[in-house]
Each structure stands twice: as structure tokens, then as C-alpha cells.
Specification:
With 277 residues, the protein is of the alpha+beta class. Helix content is 42%, strand content 28%. The protein is rod-shaped and about 110 Å long.
Length: 277
């Protein structure tokens, strides 16, 4: 029985594959691993910085609201008005503040009598007192929400008066950041220790779900109030906790990549390997 030998051409083909294809595949796999590792590290750093930048915008808004409330309080302190006149006295300031982007102004006295309050918005604490800035739970048009603002006090008509100036803290609050093509920002109020996904009435976009693990970490107030998690979509997401005046978690800001950047992340190591190979 004669032995059949492989044709010389096929031997050359196999030798060529062994000498060229396998090293290329190994090099492609190593390159894909290195690229994926560097990308993940940079992504986590970038998402953390983006989330903390959004948090700093909230702090800046608190300070700006405090300055606006102080200006209104100083102006009203110079006037002498009755309870009936207080509403008319506050209205021009409400119109002015609305024109520059503030959503809520309220004027009331130490007895709780409300002279003026922007319609459609209710704070979780009817009449906050003291001189401080805050983020508080609220209801806007009946939906759970949050307000970021400040309260200032002044004396008028022999009574202590309070003025509140605040902005609605929702997805439109971040403006340009939320419109960025590569960053998707969501804001969820927390009610009864659970995030409310439909608070803003947005039904056309898929919610960024907050896992139980992330929620527990945020309730424990981690460093900088920041938690990074891949989530159910395997997309790195930064979650930032928003805390009320008593330190309890009242809201969550979630941000992750979107558009082409998110597609690149979803490729993963094997997707990059296939592209390089």
C-alpha cells in the first residue's frame, strides 16, 4: 500500500500560514488586550471627572441661588409692605429670576404665612428656614423632583421674612453637558429609598438602571459621593449621590457614554481583536 504525500503546493501554503497568520493573530490579541485595558482605565477616569464636574455645577448653582436670594432679601428689606402688598412686591423679582433661568421663588414670614410662591412647585419642607444653601426633594406638576437653591431671611413689618430662590434639578439642569454627543446624563430623585425613573416624564429613552449594589453604596455616602459600575448594559456608568440637608440620599445623577463612543466600549476585547485581525 503506497503512502500518499501532500502536494508541495499545500505544504508551502501550510508553512506560510504557520509562519505568518498565527503570529499576526497572537499579536492582534495582545494589542486588543492592551488597547482595551488602557481604554477602560481612561474611561473610568473620564467618567469620574465628568460626574464630579456635574456635581460641581450643582454646588455652583447653590452659591448663585444664595447670592440671588440675598439680593432679593436686601431689596425687600428696604420696603414697608403689608401681607397683601408682599405678593406684589415679590412678583417683579420672580419674573426677573425666571427670565435668567430660576424656576422657583417663595416669600413667607415666620408664622408660615406665604405671600408668594411659584405655581406648580412644592418643596418637601413647606417653609425652610435659616441661611443656607441646599438640595431638597420637591414635586413639580405632581411629579417627584428636586430643587437646588437657597433661603435668606430679613426683617420687615416687625416680622422675620424668608425668601427662597431655587432651580429644578433635572436632566435639563445640566444643559450643554447633557446635549454633548458622547455623554448621556440622567437625573433620578430618590423616594422611599428607591430611584424614580419616570420623574421627568421622559419615556422615549431607556433608563439607566441603578442596581441595588450601587444604591446601597450611595446610601453609605462613598468618597465624593461617586460610584462606578458597569451595570446591566456592560457600559461603564458613573453614579453620583445627591444628599439632602440631613445627609440622606434624595437623588442620583447617572452618566455614561453615548453614540459612537459607547459603541467602541461595547466592542470589548474580542471585538477589537476581530477588527485588528
Amino acid at each position: 500500500m503506497t503512502r500518499r504525500h501532500m502536494p508541495l503546493r499545500w505544504r508551502f501554503i501550510l508553512a506560510f500560514l504557520a509562519a505568518s497568520v498565527m503570529p499576526v493573530l497572537v499579536a492582534s490579541f495582545l494589542a486588543a488586550s492592551a488597547i482595551q485595558s488602557v481604554f477602560e482605565r481612561n474611561l473610568e477616569q473620564w467618567m469620574s471627572e465628568a460626574a464630579l464636574f456635574l456635581l460641581s455645577e450643582i454646588t455652583e448653582t447653590e452659591e448663585d441661588a444664595g447670592k440671588a436670594a440675598s439680593s432679593v432679601a436686601a431689596a425687600l428689606r428696604q420696603r414697608s409692605f403689608t401681607n397683601l402688598e408682599a405678593s406684589e412686591a415679590a412678583r417683579p423679582f420672580a419674573d426677573l429670576l425666571n427670565s435668567v433661568g430660576y424656576d422657583f421663588i417663595k416669600l413667607y414670614d415666620e408664622t408660615g404665612n406665604v405671600a408668594f410662591s411659584s405655581p406648580g412647585i412644592e418643596l418637601d419642607v413647606a417653609n425652610p428656614d435659616g441661611k443656607h444653601e441646599w438640595v431638597r426633594g420637591a414635586r413639580i406638576d405632581g411629579r417627584p423632583s428636586m430643587l437646588v437653591g437657597a433661603v435668606r431671611s430679613f426683617e420687615a413689618n416687625g416680622r422675620r421674612q424668608f425668601v427662597v430662590v431655587a432651580n429644578a434639578l433635572n436632566e435639563s439642569f445640566f444643559g450643554t453637558s447633557n446635549q454633548h454627543a458622547s455623554l448621556d446624563v440622567r437625573v433620578y430623585p430618590v423616594v422611599d429609598r428607591q430611584p424614580v425613573y419616570e420623574a421627568g416624564g421622559e419615556t422615549s429613552r431607556k433608563s439607566i438602571l441603578v442596581s441595588g449594589k450601587v444604591l446601597r453604596k450611595l446610601m453609605e455616602k462613598p468618597q465624593n459621593g461617586l460610584v462606578l459600575d458597569a451595570g446591566s448594559d456592560d457600559i461603564t456608568t458613573a453614579f453620583v449621590g445627591i444628599y439632602g440637608t440631613d445627609g440622606t440620599l434624595i437623588g442620583i445623577v447617572a452618566c455614561q457614554l453615548s453614540g459612537a463612543s459607547a459603541i467602541f466600549e461595547e466592542l470589548g476585547q474580542w471585538g477589537l481583536f476581530a477588527g485588528l485581525a
